[in-house]
Write a structure and sequence with these properties.
single chain; 294 residues; alpha+beta; Arc Repressor Mutant, subunit A; Beta-Lactamase; 2 domains; six-stranded antiparallel beta sheet; two-stranded antiparallel ribbon; 8 helices; 8 strands
Length: 294
């Protein structure tokens, strides 16, 4: 028969107090552990969120200029991520219309949301740059062009027409080659020689008798551009037209070029002034962009 133990009132009270204290200590430890865990999770969460954003940005960049889209496997290979990770991020981007289906087989491409954002950024930069282009055109009484680099060519995105009776005009939206234009050569000079060859090859279309059609000759010209910061088109794209060009970057990091095309006879006479005012315009625009970003 089991023994029955009896406790006095004081003993029972002490036992209850000990039990209560032990329970309180356990609860306090549990609370402390929970607080530490929550702090660790809170610290890790921003890092995890930043990593997801970086991965999403890498996926969007991989799809740039891929009009036919890419499969999940192709994206995973380009961004060096697991296919399952790419699939999760792509699904989230599709939900927000940053990506859309490009084919019934699972390829995706950039969607309307990202295209609207890009168009908005480009429009904003044109609006920011226009007063500087207008001032330059007024000072020189010549046409001033604004163009954006798109892989191996330029696209004109804005223009202020000069007041001279004999002037040059090119429609916004037209594309031009890099090797024989002032704005194109200004961009090429920002690349190293190997990158120039990779981008446009080693032999080029002859647009005029003055066009540089071989890589070696073009690289010699680019040495001067790198030294002076200004590229010159000496009737290389069109007979009778010369131009000076410089490059800068818009707030999104895209390369843009400002150029001043001038009838050849007038250009040779005023080249020094054109170059000086073009440099000053670039510097003023860049100061404005830096102030806006600060």
């Amino acid at each position: 028969m089991p023994a029955i133990l009896y406790q006095s009132g004081d003993q029972a009270a002490r036992t209850r107090r000990a039990t209560t204290i032990a329970a309180g200590e356990i609860e306090m430890r549990a609370v402390g552990e929970r607080v530490l865990r929550e702090k660790a999770e809170a610290k890790a969460q921003p890092q995890s969120q930043v990593q997801v954003i970086a991965r999403a940005a890498a996926i969007l960049r991989a799809l740039e200029d891929e009009a036919a889209g890419l499969s999940l496997g192709q994206i995973a290979q380009r961004v060096n991520l697991a296919r399952s990770t790419v699939q999760r991020i792509v699904a989230a981007l599709e939900a927000e219309k940053f990506l859309i289906a490009a084919s019934p087989t699972g390829r995706v491409r950039l969607g309307p949301t990202i295209l609207r954002l890009a168009a908005s950024a480009r429009t904003d930069f044109v609006a920011i740059a226009r007063p500087y282009l207008t001032q330059l055109s007024s000072e020189l009484k010549e046409t001033v062009d604004l163009s954006m680099v798109k892989k191996d060519h330029l696209v004109f995105i804005d223009q202020v027409i000069g007041s001279q009776r004999l002037r040059t005009v090119s429609a916004v939206g037209l594309t031009f080659p890099l090797h024989c234009t002032a704005n194109g050569k200004a961009y090429l000079a920002s690349l190293d020689n190997a990158a120039v060859a990779d981008l446009i090859g080693t032999e080029y279309e002859r647009r005029t008798p003055r066009t540089l059609t071989r890589l070696d000759d073009l690289l010699q010209d680019l040495k001067t551009v790198r030294r002076t910061g200004v590229a010159i088109d000496r009737e290389e794209h069109e007979i009778g037209i010369c131009a000076a060009g410089v490059i800068t970057r818009d707030p999104a990091g895209n390369t843009v070029a400002i150029s001043v095309p001038v009838p050849a006879q007038r250009f040779h006479k005023h080249q020094r002034t054109i170059v000086a005012r073009l440099r000053a315009t670039k510097e003023a625009l860049e100061r404005h962009l830096l102030a806006e970003a600060a």
